[in-house]
Amino acid sequence: MSIADRLKVPAGLKVLITGGAAGIGGMIADGFHAAGAHVYICDIDAAAVDAMKRKYPGMQGAAVDVGIQEDVDRIMDEAVTVLEGLDVLVNNAGIAGPTGNVESLDAAAWEQTIATNLNSQFYFLRKAVPYLKASDRNPNIVSVSSVAGRLGYPFRTPYAATKWAIVGLMKSLASELGPDNVRVNAILPGVVAGDRMSRVISERAKVLGISDEAMRQQYLDKISLRRMVTLEDVAAMALFLSTPAAMNITGQAISVDGNVEYL
């Protein structure tokens, strides 16, 4: 196989993407669909799931609250039935969580962030791993963490705590599942341009008592390349990790961030 061929996503891969109806997950779903994969998405937004299914003929999916184990079990059973197995799990679902001083954070918002960002990854993993072990198509897990999974993130502690935990989960599973030929990696997106980041900037600006424009510039000043990354940048890495070229890449926390120096 040539190097060029090794860089191609094999057609027919069976891919499940959580949080796959918008944002990073939606772009990853777009990329896999374009590459000829069989894609199943789940997302809490039922209307967004339906819109994706209309936009991409053949894509399957359903609405689910990923923080509820029983709902995840139901969706996993449906997904592997529809796909007739599983080659790739993209554990992407997550929320921004609350912003504020730790002493002022709401406990319910903390627990929702843990449930959505971290517990959900475990719920999908426990159901998906047996199918991945049975796959003979370079099976792999892509866990979406964040640059906040390698750096401290003042006033965003619930989010940062979950993203650091995802890296630890990935590192442990890479060792655990390596003998079964299942690879596990994490992508750490940086400051991703879009509506979600704009909301985070606005909320953090309020906490610090500065303008949104000043807060946005502070974020850019912390990036070596002085620019935000795009959804396409992150999706491209997820697809690369599912190509033959990545068959010996596992246990890695891969930043796609323009080199964020600090938060």
TrEMBL record:
TM helices/strands, residue ranges: none
InterPro entries named among the record's database cross-references: NAD(P)-bd_dom_sf, Sc_DH/Rdtase_CS, SDR_fam
Source species, domain of life: Bacteria
PROSITE patterns the record matches: ADH_SHORT
Keyword Ribonucleoprotein: no
Keywords for this protein: Oxidoreductase
MF terms (GO), sorted A to Z: oxidoreductase activity, acting on the CH-OH group of donors, NAD or NADP as acceptor
Family indicated by similarity: Belongs to the short-chain dehydrogenases/reductases (SDR) family.
Protein name: NAD(P)-dependent dehydrogenase, short-chain alcohol dehydrogenase family
Species of origin: Pollutimonas bauzanensis
